[in-house]
């Protein structure tokens, strides 16, 4: 729990730091961030503690506040064959994350404090990283009745979402936003008009036309983005739009942010990398909601990250068994895993000069921390020593055998990537170290 | 004389040369079906399996007769009587059939891409007999064969495809095939049944059948399914028939040598008036006859091809 991380390039967007610095961690907290730290010269450190300090030289590496993925599915309770809190948090650690938020579509649904309690306590016992549950907006994700949002907030939920489904009843969503506002927590919207998206298996466009597969049009998302922004304006509530996928959604976010509405947003990493052209292989590991769109949408999402319209990058890590995915495209479930490839894929955008490193780091640290009101995302003195260390030059080939996730439903298996997290530290404890 | 492809998954993968090879081969095989003894020994000892996940009379019968007239052994698996109803996956079913060493598997499936999934994991040649709304290559080939037989050419012809384009695998395969051989294609149908961005396939789109008829050399009518009404894709049969149905009144302005085609089964009186279906422009039953020759050519060419002399002996 006592570390001296030496000679790294420390990038901490919240504290506007980008410099070669050392970081001293004492008792799991950030004790000092400065040049050439010599622990013996620091005051107030007991001599027994001094002896225990483990020194790590990270010259040539990037040292950041611990990365946060604010959109994952851990599948426990209920689908422990696909993922558990133990395996999912280990996958997070190996992916360079120190904190994750998990969506409520478990079995049973996280719509009451017993389930929230279970997730938090299980994560404390078996988890490799910090786990912050997201509670459901409606009981059983049925879109009919409000969950006990007050109980969920008190028990530790950091936001509310019916993710996987989209609340279709506008009146109900209005009430949810008004109610969640009392607890200063966001409503996290999966935006999808179910009638427009019905039976769709991929993006509606030229590729779906050629393949003869029912498409999901952009407006299935955009109509709900627009509606939710209007409802949040009326309710005065914080709306977080998750996994935005279309250029049109970004125009709506721009409008909302320019008018100063409390709207934040994130994009899933696969929507920044892949287009619907990839579906020509019928690979079911390319099927997710929202669907992979077009290059025009990728361009809009990337410029949205640059301009701050998009605040965070997420994985939408959605484990499914091979047997569930190894079927015809129409019959396969939606979703792919992403925790263990997400950071490398984001760094690939840096290598391509599409994003700068600071934007990527902000989207994994200070921004998601602010959205979910987490006391995380910086290297400020006194904070939990959650630290992610990156090697921008490290090259490797993605191999499913190395995945810690119980599921292997990734379209990135076999890809050669450059840049990867090489260590993750949670509360001063090294939970992942590549070398 | 062989096809440069292991499988026939779609027309999109074929070149004009491939298509002409199949049509030429079909032409020489067509005669076999007119003999008293309708059989040549070409594929003796070869095994063909049809695996149909959707109801079909015409296509399956046509493939079966094609295989039999080439002396292949043919087994038909209909999904209702197989282990598919017990929840076996497509891949597992395919693997099990493969284990019995057939040379060709002919598959029809309600979902796009199913033949490709089999082709990627199985040894036998895969023939797509229709997958979802994706492709129906043998239908397009028999359509082209019929057009070529009647018009003596494909290039430069104006072809209209009329009806539910969105859900039609025939339309897509016909578009690829006709375009590759130099015909120009106009799609006609209600806007609700024309899929987005289809112009990128190199076709024109019109909502007015009467405008398209006078310039057309060929009109391919598609079957309209009644369930599209409950999906709000058009309001009523009566209205559909009035606007997009083909009748003798609308054909008054047609070219004299216009041919009218339909992949079947026909909704008489809905997309096609009986007068037209049975009238002088119609080549619908010839399409059915030609289907056997074209499918014989496909099976023959996929199984390696032999010298022409051996074929016609």
Automatic annotation (TrEMBL), chain A:
Binding site for Zn(2+) 1: 71, 73, 163, 316
CDD domains per the UniProt record, alphabetical: DHOase_IIa (cd01317)
Enzymatic class: hydrolase
Active site feature: 316
EC number(s) reported in the record: 3.5.2.3
Keyword Zinc set for record: yes
A single MF term (Gene Ontology): dihydroorotase activity
Pathway(s) where this gene product acts: Pyrimidine metabolism; UMP biosynthesis via de novo pathway; (S)-dihydroorotate from bicarbonate: step 3/3
Cofactors required: Zn(2+)
Chain ranges of the Amidohydrolase domain: 353-432
UniProt KW keywords: Hydrolase, Metal-binding, Pyrimidine biosynthesis, Zinc
Residue numbers binding substrate: 73-75, 105, 320, 334-335
Dihydroorotase catalytic domain: residues covered: 60-246
Binding site for Zn(2+) 2: 163, 190, 243
Short name of one Pfam family: DHOase
Cofactor: how bound: Binds 2 Zn(2+) ions per subunit.
The keyword Metal-binding is annotated on this UniProt entry: yes
BP GO annotations: 'de novo' UMP biosynthetic process; purine nucleobase catabolic process
Gene Ontology CC: cytoplasm
Coiled-coil region list: none
Catalytic reaction list: (S)-dihydroorotate + H2O = N-carbamoyl-L-aspartate + H(+)
Job description of the protein: Catalyzes the reversible cyclization of carbamoyl aspartate to dihydroorotate.
Record-linked NCBIfam families: pyrC_multi
Protein name per UniProt: Dihydroorotase
Naturally occurring in which organism (per UniProt): Candidatus Schekmanbacteria bacterium GWA2_38_11
TrEMBL record, chain B:
InterPro entries: Asp/Orn_carbamoyltranf_P-bd (IPR006132), Asp/Orn_carbamoylTrfase (IPR006130), Asp/Orn_carbamoylTrfase_sf (IPR036901), Asp_carbamoyltransf (IPR002082), Asp_carbamoyltransf_Asp/Orn-bd (IPR006131)
Annotated residues for binding of carbamoyl phosphate: 58-59, 108, 136, 139, 264-265
Protein residues bound to L-aspartate: 86, 169, 223
Domain Aspartate/ornithine carbamoyltransferase Asp/Orn-binding: 156-302
Catalytic activity: carbamoyl phosphate + L-aspartate = N-carbamoyl-L-aspartate + phosphate + H(+)
GO cellular component: cytosol
Enzyme kind, highest EC tier: transferase
GO molecular function: amino acid binding; aspartate carbamoyltransferase activity
Organism superkingdom: Bacteria
GO process terms (BP): 'de novo' pyrimidine nucleobase biosynthetic process; 'de novo' UMP biosynthetic process; amino acid metabolic process
Family (UniProt): Belongs to the aspartate/ornithine carbamoyltransferase superfamily. ATCase family.
Subunit structure: Heterododecamer (2C3:3R2) of six catalytic PyrB chains organized as two trimers (C3), and six regulatory PyrI chains organized as three dimers (R2).
Name this polypeptide is given: Aspartate carbamoyltransferase
Taxonomy of the source species: Bacteria, Candidatus Schekmaniibacteriota
């Amino acid at each position: 729990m006592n570390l001296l991380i030496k000679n790294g390039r420390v990038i901490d967007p919240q504290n506007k730091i980008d410099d070669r610095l050392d970081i001293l961690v004492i008792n799991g907290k950030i004790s000092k961030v400065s040049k050439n730290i010599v622990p013996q010269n620091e005051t107030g450190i007991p001599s027994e503690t001094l002896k225990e300090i483990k020194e790590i030289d990270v010259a040539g590496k990037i040292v950041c506040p611990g990365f946060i993925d604010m959109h994952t599915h851990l599948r426990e309770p209920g689908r422990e064959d696909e993922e558990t809190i133990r395996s999912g948090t280990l996958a997070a650690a190996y992916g360079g994350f120190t904190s994750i938020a998990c969506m409520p579509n478990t079995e049973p649904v996280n719509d009451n404090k017993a389930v929230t309690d279970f997730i938090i306590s299980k994560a404390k016992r078996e988890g490799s990283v910090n786990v912050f549950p997201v509670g459901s907006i409606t009981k059983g994700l049925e879109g009919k009745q409000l969950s006990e949002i007050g109980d969920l907030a008190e028990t530790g939920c950091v936001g509310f979402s019916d993710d996987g489904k989209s609340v279709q009843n506008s009146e109900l969503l209005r009430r949810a936003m008004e109610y969640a506002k009392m607890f200063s927590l966001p409503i996290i919207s999966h935006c999808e008009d179910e009638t427009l998206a019905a039976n769709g298996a991929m993006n509606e466009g030229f590729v779906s036309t050629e393949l003869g597969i029912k498409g999901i049009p952009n407006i299935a998302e955009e109509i709900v983005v627009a509606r939710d922004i209007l409802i949040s304006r009326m309710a005065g509530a914080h709306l977080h739009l998750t996994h935005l996928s279309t250029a049109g959604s970004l125009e709506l976010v721009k409008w909302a942010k320019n008018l100063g509405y409390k709207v934040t947003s994130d994009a899933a990493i696969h929507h920044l990398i892949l287009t619907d052209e990839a579906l020509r292989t019928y690979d079911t590991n390319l099927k997710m909601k929202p669907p992979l769109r077009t290059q025009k949408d990728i361009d809009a999402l990337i410029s949205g990250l640059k301009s701050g319209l998009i605040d965070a990058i997420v994985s939408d890590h959605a484990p499914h068994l091979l047997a569930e995915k190894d079927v015809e495209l129409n019959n396969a479930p939606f979703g792919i895993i992403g925790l263990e490839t997400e950071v490398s894929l984001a760094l690939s955008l840096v290598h391509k000069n599409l994003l700068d490193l600071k934007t990527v780091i902000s989207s994994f640290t200070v921004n998601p921390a602010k959205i979910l009101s987490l006391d995380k995302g910086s290297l400020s003195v006194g904070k939990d020593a959650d630290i992610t260390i990156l090697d921008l030059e490290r090259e490797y080939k993605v191999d499913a055998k190395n995945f810690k996730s119980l599921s292997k439903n990734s379209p990135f298996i076999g890809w050669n990537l450059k840049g990867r997290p090489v260590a993750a530290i949670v509360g001063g404890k090294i939970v992942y170290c590549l070398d | 004389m062989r096809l440069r492809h292991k499988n026939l998954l779609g027309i999109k993968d074929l070149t004009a040369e491939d298509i002409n090879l199949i049509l030429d081969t079909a032409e020489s095989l067509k005669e076999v079906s007119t003999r008293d003894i309708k059989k040549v020994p070409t594929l003796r000892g070869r095994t063909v399996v049809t695996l149909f996940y959707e109801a079909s009379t015409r296509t399956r019968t046509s493939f079966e007769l094609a295989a039999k007239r080439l002396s292949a052994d043919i087994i038909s698996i209909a999904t209702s009587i197989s282990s598919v109803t017990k929840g076996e996956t497509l891949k597992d079913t395919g693997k099990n059939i493969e284990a019995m060493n057939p040379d060709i598997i002919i598959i029809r499936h309600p979902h796009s891409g199913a033949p490709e999934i089999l082709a990627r994991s199985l040894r036998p040649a895969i023939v797509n007999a229709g997958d979802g709304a994706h492709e129906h290559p043998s239908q397009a080939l028999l359509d082209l064969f019929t057009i070529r037989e009647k018009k003596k050419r494909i290039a430069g012809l104006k072809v209209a495809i009329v009806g539910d384009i969105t859900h039609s695998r025939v339309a897509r395969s016909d578009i690829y095939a006709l375009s590759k051989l130099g015909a120009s294609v106009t799609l006609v149908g209600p806007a609700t049944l024309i899929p987005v961005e289809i112009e990128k396939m190199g076709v024109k789109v019109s909502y007015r059948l009467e405008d398209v008829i006078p310039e057309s050399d060929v009109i391919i009518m598609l079957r309209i399914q009644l369930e599209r009404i409950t999906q709000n894709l058009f309001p009523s049969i009566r209205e559909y028939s009035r606007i997009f149905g083909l009748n003798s009144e609308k054909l008054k302005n047609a070219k004299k040598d216009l041919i009218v085609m339909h992949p079947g089964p026909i909704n008489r009186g809905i997309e096609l008036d009986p007068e037209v279906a049975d009238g002088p422009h119609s080549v619908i039953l010839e399409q059915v006859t030609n289907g056997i020759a074209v499918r014989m050519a496909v099976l023959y060419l996929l199984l390696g091809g032999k010298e022409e002399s051996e074929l016609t002996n």
